[in-house]
Design goal:
This protein is an alpha+beta fold and about 300 residues long. About 25% of the residues lie in helices and about 20% in strands. It folds into two domains: about 110 residues, DNA primase, PRIM domain; about 150 residues, DNA primase, PRIM domain (Alpha-Beta Complex). The protein contains six helices and 15 strands. Strands 5, 6, 7, 8, 9 and 15 form a six-stranded antiparallel beta sheet that branches. The protein has a five-stranded mixed beta sheet with strand order 11-12-10-14-13, covered by helices on one side. Strand 11 and strand 12 form a beta hairpin. The radius of gyration is 19 Å and the shape is globular.
């Protein structure tokens, strides 16, 4: 089935969305307009995770039917007026990048308007770009089996518990698991990354057949890659409640630890099932209240 291109527009959340009937998920019949309406509906829960944070968006103009790329440079003119920006110099290229700063509904829907699906943010805010206010682990199963990620996540939680740290898990929206640790002010990104590396090394030491810190995909084999480097300067991680370009239009879903079991199927969390899920309560409701200091 080819991508349906139509000339109509729809106003959603005060933003004009072009081609709202364009099918982005042909198997499910999910359209560009459906994604805009989802983000409008979920914005009270999503926007606090994006507020005052530079972001990167995955742009997929044809949804599941075409290619995607991560976009972080947003010059003036292609996102609605009023969306704040922050110019930062990329360390890899030495060039200035005009990052969009999240937290604005108009900007969020404007991103969908230009073909963006998933939203990724930094663990720092514009007022203190070198200071992290959360620590995040990205557990990615090379086997593709979510059950492997669950096993690794439980051991990771044990290690964090042993260090006196409260942690919060969420699905990545794909096959992985993200584990966040809320932090009080005063933690440098360098210090947070160094601590995350030590925890990841301990996780791999305890479960060498299950977990690896090897960056090379070939060296990982079938093991879960424990990535601590989402915490470094200018790196991003997908936000809670972000849509992913995956079959079914899955969502990165906050979880309670007692939900992280071998029976959990991350594919059940989609834009079409989230309303019922949210009605049951937010397992991350006290995330900010549980902010803590990392051990020395």
């Amino acid at each position: 089935m080819g991508a349906a291109r139509v000339s109509a527009t729809a106003t959603i959340g005060g933003v004009e969305i072009s081609n709202p009937d364009k099918v982005w998920w042909p198997d499910e019949g999910i359209t560009k307009g459906d994604i805009a309406r989802y983000y409008h509906a979920i914005s009270p829960l999503l926007l606090p995770w994006m507020r005052d944070r530079p972001l990167t968006a995955e742009r997929c103009p044809d949804g599941m039917l075409g290619g995607c790329f991560y976009r972080k440079n947003f010059p003036e003119g292609n996102i609605p007026v009023g969306a704040p920006r922050l110019r930062l110099r990329a360390e890899s290229t030495g060039k200035d990048v005009n990052y969009l700063v999240g937290g604005n509904l108009e900007a969020l829907l404007g991103l969908v308007r230009v073909g963006c699906i998933s939203m990724h943010v930094m663990n720092s805010r514009v007022a203190s770009m070198r200071e992290a206010d959360w620590l995040a682990f990205d557990l990615d199963p090379s086997s593709g089996e979510f059950s492997d990620t669950v096993r690794a996540g439980k051991v990771l939680r044990t290690i964090l518990d042993e260090n006196g740290l409260v942690s919060f898990p969420k699905t990545s929206g794909s096959r992985g698991l993200h584990v966040f640790v809320p932090l009080r002010p005063g933690h440098s990104q360098e210090g947070v990354t160094a601590f995350a590396v030590r925890v990841g090394e301990e996780l791999a030491r305890r479960e060498p057949e299950l977990v690896t810190m090897q960056f090379s995909k070939k060296a990982r084999g079938e093991r879960v890659y424990a990535d601590p480097f989402r915490n470094t300067y200018l790196q991003t991680i997908v936000t809670p409640y972000s849509v992913r370009r995956r079959p079914g239009a899955t969502v990165s879903m906050p979880l309670a630890w007692d939900e992280v079991t071998a029976r959990l199927d991350p594919r059940r969390f989609t834009i079409r099932t989230l309303e019922k899920r949210i009605a049951a309560g937010d397992p991350w409701a006290d995330f900010k209240k549980r902010a803590q200091h990392l051990p020395d």
